[in-house]
Design brief:
The structure holds 2 protein chains of 2 kinds. By secondary structure, chain A is mostly helical. Chain A has 4 domains: 136 residues, no CATH class; 141 residues, no CATH class; 125 residues, no CATH class; 163 residues, no CATH class. Chain A is 68% helix and 4% strand. Chain A has 26 helices and 6 strands. In chain A, the strands form 3 sheets. A two-stranded antiparallel ribbon of chain A has the order 1-2. Chain A is elongated. By secondary structure, chain B is α+β, with helices and mostly antiparallel strands. Among the domains of chain B are: 94 residues, no CATH class; 98 residues, no CATH class; 129 residues, no CATH class. In chain B, strands 4, 5, 12, 13, 14 and 15 form a 6-stranded antiparallel beta sheet that branches. In chain B, β17 and β18 form a beta hairpin. In chain B, α3 packs antiparallel against α4, α5 runs antiparallel to α9 and α7 crosses α8. The longest helix of chain B has 35 residues. Classes of the chains: A mainly alpha, B alpha+beta.
Chain lengths: 627, 476
């Protein structure tokens, strides 16, 4: 049995990964087909599925939500279909996550009550707006928005987050039809026939007094125009463009195209498909819905074959969820490596190695798939930097393991793997992770050189820091750190710091050269540049201190742990300052996490500086007596 | 015999250890580590300071200086003062440390060749940055489509210019006096001008207050001639913020060569920044009409705009004086750097991603900024070239970067473009330094790695079995 475990356990994880690759079978409404419908949002061609997921994650923080009454998990695309086509039902879905107790009580929302299925955390649109205090929410929201970013407290942030979620949800309701309409097809037909008359009537209504305006509300065409105007709203940047190019016109939002056709042309074919799908969905008619959807699919294949192919690939990628699978496997690999330390069972080390390799392969498939989808080098934003730092750290960990075979490389690699993927998951809560690049970033050459190399510099500095953490934690808390392992760790840390110096230096200087190319100065003391410079200086300091004999084994470890703080400052800290040319990577609320991490590192350095007589390892060694 | 007293000195000089002993404190790695640590502190506090002081001030205070101090911005913590070395001091010290260490310990060996190469690269980088700091000059060139420019403008400094009016542009004599010479109370006697003038007041940053004609009867105007009769210029504190600009003004008294006063004038740079133009007019419309809401403002704009435009045109008018039948105009404007060639802006392209330009901000996600220009050099001929993000134009020792893009305020169909124009003779040093350091580190770590790979390592089995007491390494 022991012989097979190292293969069996990773094989089980592999099966679990491949099982999720299989296409979902639709019972009832063809949601998986709907997910593949191509749209254009924030300048990016993407499947409706991605839009659904990125919207739901901003509201609910997951890609599927659990409905307590139906007792099942509802995928994002199903939730979106309901929001677009069957608004009344959707408004009762408890998807709005509210964490702040003060906000819950201000809105007079029910507390946790298992009997009624309330979890005290998630509320529906109707619950939130049904309360008497909606004006209070608006007041609080504009008050919080007026405050400077750094001055906002957690309540302000919660209010703004909810306000943003409500606005986003409202955009979904108006994506494919005026919110709440159940019978759009007859409306469109009537609209089309009466458009010329309606245009005149609408113009006349605008010129007339308010009494007569109210009178004109009775006119069905005026009402249609008013409906589409209302659908268009004033925050249209949150609404995706669902109508593909047709008859010389570009991609358009539903309402915009309807209002354009007030000029008196025939209605776009795609709008009619969308209307038919929606009406069938609202009526609960799966057959009609699926038929209309398939017709629209065929239409898209002939009209926009490239977008359809890309949408299909991206839906596959969404379903594969490589980073989620890799994250889980990294945790398993880390646990196996820990087991090796306590039991020294070679089987555990084998299992851990194979699991780490499996997770790394899945991680890399995800990374390369993303690059292929975007047509970009691996790192284009904070999210992908986390993915890439994780990947680089695991590779380094495996290389170390290849030489030393003591599970330290495995433990550090798999730990950094799952930590960075958790960070990536949290960064993804902001929405689309494949957003289009601003003009200054739109250069694959510099993204492939400067960004990749500097990110590898981050990764290696973290690897050195986490190796040092292994030294302190194992040495201080367990008796398991013998001097041979300690020596091995020292050489690992030293080697990785050399590597980190090379990469962070070259990456930083390449960044300077890029800046020279695009802004006209090599070095501008911008916060992000300074952060990278600090990493370079810190690694150089470690090396010189080591060469000059100013630090020995333990000093090296403490300096390397401080390297974690330095790198985190550069990676996230400077973005929190909210200034500088690189502040496009800004995120909220991560400050506490960063502060806690820095605190933990300071604590570890403190432990690492305690005399050896307080350590569990190294007791009775001559060296211990000296220090 | 008189020289006997110097024997020990001579001996000392002859001693092969003399140089080493003298340099010893300068060559130590302890000093290197200290300097690196101080460097980290300076960069860190210099970054923090940018949140309040802005980039420009923080940069000159912490990096382009010899010494500095940092204090928190929270008033209750103001008493904390951290003294720091400045960037110049640290850079020089690192350079001295590095060079001294190599002189004292120089002994060529292949094993250390990587360190040597990368340190040479560091020297190139440090010296190159110092040269950039001393010789680089940044200015801006902005124009609308179709316009020609043969100069770029400084965005910090202004100059006072006298022009003699003549129909023949080539005959027009120009005298430009840089801002640094214009101090309150200073007298100027220039041979090319048939008059002298005195700076009665120099305002590094100013605010023009419009004085309506009926008010002018009660209050005496600020000057006897020109815009000072319509506006009163007041000095305001100098701003240091990144997105704010100092707008200097000056009050001049002009006298004939025999000393009789010809009157007083005001000159101002308020016409320098195009963005101020629209802002100033909105401000006047608001103050005349008392409009508060957007709707009221729109109506007020209709009503008052022609009037404020005429006020504004008065503000930007060059001042003039006629002496001996010849007219001279003078104005305060951003300092100009003339080039021996001209540039014409042919076409601007500003693209945003589809479906992103209609948000509340209306900005959109920028996809491309591109300017097509015609460069015309009297001896080297003309050529057309595109300047866009990450693709600057390098020409005649200058580099033109796409900096801003906009629309002409009068004719919205006409695009405008601003280039950052950089003259930096040492722009190549970072490239060279980067190559040297990278190469050196690769060689050095390659040697380490080779040595590491050729040695046996402690495998897991020995690590597990080795008793802790066999350790002989010393730990600190």
């Amino acid at each position: 049995m022991k012989r097979f475990l190292p293969l069996l356990i990773p094989a089980l994880f592999a099966v679990w990964f491949f099982k999720d690759l299989a296409p979902a079978t639709d019972r009832g409404f063809a949601y998986s087909r709907l997910g593949k419908v191509p749209i254009l949002f924030k300048g990016r061609h993407q499947p409706l599925d991605s839009f659904a997921r990125n919207s739901l994650v901003q509201i609910y923080e997951r890609y599927a939500f659990y409905d307590a009454t139906e007792k099942r998990s509802i995928p994002a695309i199903e939730w979106l279909a309901e929001a677009m086509f069957k608004t009344e039902a959707s408004r009762d879905r408890r998807v709005f996550r509210i964490d702040h107790p003060d906000l819950i009580s201000m809105l007079q929302l029910p507390m946790k009550d298992d009997a009624r299925g309330f979890d005290g955390k998630h509320y529906s649109f109707n619950q939130i707006l049904g309360g008497t205090n909606i004006n209070t929410l608006q007041e609080q929201s504009s008050r919080a928005a007026a405050r400077a970013e750094a001055q906002r407290d957690t309540f302000d942030q919660a209010v703004l987050r909810l306000g943003n979620a409500l606005m986003l949800y409202n955009a979904l309701l108006n994506t494919a039809r005026p919110a709440g309409m159940t019978q759009l097809v007859p409306e469109l037909n009537a609209f089309q026939q009466a458009v010329p008359r309606g245009t005149n009537a609408y113009d006349a209504a605008r010129a007339k007094s308010s009494d007569e305006k109210a009178d004109l509300q009775q006119d069905p065409v005026v009402r249609s125009v008013a409906r589409f105007l209302y659908q268009r709203g004033d925050r249209s940047d949150k609404v995706p463009l669902i109508l593909p190019p047709e008859g010389g016109a570009a991609w358009a939002r539903f309402a915009d195209r309807m209002l354009e056709f007030v000029g008196g042309n025939t209605l776009p074919q795609a709008a009619i498909y969308w209307a038919r799908m929606g009406d069938a969905y609202a009526a609960g008619d799966t057959g009609l819905f699926n038929a209309a959807l398939i017709e629209y699919e065929r239409y898209c294949v002939t009209q926009l074959p490239k977008d359809v192919t890309k949408a299909e690939r991206e839906t596959f990628f969404n379903r594969m969820a490589p980073f989620y699978h890799a994250l889980v496997i990294y945790i398993a690999a880390f646990l196996a490596a820990l087991f090796f330390w306590f039991r020294f069972s070679e089987t555990a080390r084998q299992i851990s190695t194979n699991l780490t390799v499996l997770a790394l392969v899945i991680h890399m498939v995800g990374l390369v798939f993303r690059m292929w989808l975007e047509g970009r080098p691996p790192v284009t934003n904070l999210y992908s930097s986390a993915i890439f730092i994780g990947w680089g750290s695991v590779v380094l960990g495996l290389v170390l393991e290849r030489f030393w075979r003591n599970a330290i490389g495995l433990a550090v690699g798999s730990m950094l793997g799952f930590v960075t993927l958790i960070i990536a998951h949290n960064l993804a809560l902001e929405g689309d992770t494949m957003e289009m690049l601003r003009a200054v970033l739109d250069t694959n050459f510099w993204l492939a050189t400067h960004v990749v190399i500097v990110t590898l510099g981050y990764a290696s500095t973290y690897v050195a820091g986490f190796l040092a953490i292994v030294y302190v934690v194992r040495g201080f808390f367990t008796g398991g750190l013998d001097s041979a392992t300690a020596r091995a760790l020292t050489r690992m840390v030293y080697g990785i710091v050399c590597f980190a110096t090379l990469f962070s230096f070259v990456g930083t200087v390449l960044g300077g050269i890029w800046a020279d190319q695009s802004w006209g100065r090599f070095w501008g003391w911008d916060p992000k540049e300074n952060g990278a410079l600090i990493i370079v200086l810190w690694n150089a300091l470690i090396l010189h201190a080591r060469w000059g004999g100013l630090v020995k084994e333990r000093g090296l470890m403490n300096l390397a742990i401080a390297g974690n703080v330095v790198t985190s400052w550069s990676w996230f800290g400077v973005n929190m300052l909210g200034i500088g040319l690189h502040s496009y990577g800004f995120m909220n609320g991560a400050f506490q996490v960063l502060a806690a991490f820095v605190g933990s590192q300071v604590l570890l350095i403190g432990l690492g500086s305690l005399p050896f007589k307080h350590w569990k390892s190294f007791k009775g060694t001559p060296a211990a007596a000296q220090s | 015999m008189e020289f006997a007293g110097l024997r020990p000195v001579v001996r000392l000089f002859r001693s092969p250890h003399f140089v080493k002993r003298l340099l010893a404190p300068l060559t130590s790695l302890r000093l290197t580590v200290t300097l690196l640590a101080l460097g980290i502190a300076v960069v860190f506090f210099g970054t923090l300071a940018q949140t309040e002081d802005g980039l420009y001030v923080a940069q000159s205070r912490y990096f382009r200086s010899w010494f500095s101090t940092w204090s928190p911005h929270t008033p209750s913590l103001k008493w904390i003062i951290i003294p720091l070395p400045g960037g110049y001091l640290l850079g020089t010290a690192l350079l001295v440390n590095l060079i001294a260490a190599h002189i004292a310990r120089f002994k060529f060996s292949w094993k250390k060749s990587g360190i040597l190469i990368s340190h040479l690269g560091i020297i190139v980088l440090l010296v190159g940055q110092l040269a950039t700091d001393m010789f680089a000059r940044e200015s801006r060139m902005s124009f609308a489509e179709g316009e020609w420019r043969n100069y770029s403008e400084d965005f910090q400094e202004t100059e006072l210019v006298f022009l003699s009016d003549t129909s023949d542009a080539a005959m027009q004599s120009v005298v430009a006096i840089p801002e640094s010479l214009l101090k309150t109370g200073e007298n100027f006697v220039l041979p090319v001008l048939p008059f002298t003038f005195k700076v009665r007041q120099w305002m590094p940053n100013s605010d023009p207050v419009f004085v309506p004609p009926m008010m002018a009867q009660t209050n005496a105007p600020q000057t006897s001639h020109g815009i000072g009769r319509v506006f009163t210029f007041t000095e305001v504190p100098v701003t240091r913020k990144m997105d704010d600009k100092n707008v200097p003004s000056a009050l001049l008294e002009i006298a004939s060569t025999n000393g009789t006063s010809l009157g007083t004038w005001a000159v101002s740079d308020w016409a320098g920044e195009p963005s101020l133009k629209f802002g100033a007019q909105r401000y006047w419309v608001r103050s005349f009409s008392g409009a508060t809401s957007t709707g009221q403002m729109e109506e007020a704009m209709q009503q008052y705009f022609p009037m404020t435009r005429s006020i504004y045109s008065k503000l930007i008018e060059p001042q003039s004086i006629t002496v001996d039948g010849r007219k001279y105009s003078f104005l305060l404007r951003p300092r100009r750097y003339y080039q021996p060639f001209s540039v014409q802006l042919l076409k601007t392209t500003h693209e945003v991603y589809a479906g992103t330009a209609d948000g509340p901000g209306g900005e959109g996600i920028p996809k491309n900024f591109q300017s097509r220009v015609l460069v015309d050099h009297p001896t080297k001929g003309r050529r057309e070239v595109d300047i866009y993000m990450n693709n600057p134009l390098r020409y005649e020792g200058l580099t033109f970067f796409q900096y801003q893009m906009g629309r002409d305020e009068v004719a919205a169909s006409r695009g405008t473009s601003t280039f950052q124009v950089v003259k930096n003779p040492s722009w190549l040093t970072p490239y060279l330094g980067c190559v040297l350091v990278s190469l050196g580190l690769l060689v050095q770590f390659g040697i380490h790695l080779g040595a590491f790979l050729s040695k046996p390592r402690n495998a897991a089995a020995s690590a597990a079995a080795a008793p802790a007491s066999t350790s002989s390494t010393s730990r600190r």
